[in-house]
Amino acid sequence: MIASAYPDPITRLRSVLARMRGIRVSSIWGGTPVVSAVGPAVFGDFLPDALADGRFRAAPEPRVVGTGIASIPEALAVLRGGVSAAKIVVSIEP
Q1: Of 3, 39, 84, 94, which one has the fewest beta carbons inside 10 Å?
Q2: Which is more confidently placed, 39 or 33?
């Protein structure tokens, strides 16, 4: 399965090729806030300070299942097992 929250032309092409091989493709198109005044206003001006001082809280709380790429199969197993209102996270260290 390929999942994309911001499908660009390359992602769309890859999804067509994947479908031809029987792979299920899912995507969400939310517009392009980065190229409008909305993106910088929210993600640059508001969100960093609001997260830092508690005016805005990310929800649901993340459920960290591991660290590093080796933990991705475990995270996928958690998702396959079924989750509801959960944010499954694999922390990737630089």
Answers
A1: 94
A2: 39
Binning pLDDT at 50, 70 and 90, where does residue 37 land? confident
Preceding peptide of 48 cis, ω within 30°: no
pTM for the model: 0.45
Question: Which residue type, as a one-letter code, is found at position 86?
Answer: A
DSSP 39-70: HIIIIIIIHHHHHHHTSS--SSPEEEEEESGG
Tell which residue, 47, 45, 67, 46, has the closest CA to residue 58: 47
Could you tell me if 63 and 91 are in contact, meaning their C-beta atoms sit under 8 angstroms apart?
no
Amino acid at 25: V
- Gap between the Cα atoms of 5 and 47, Å rounded: 19
For 43-74, the pLDDT digits (tens) are 889 999 999 999 998 888 889 999 998 999 99
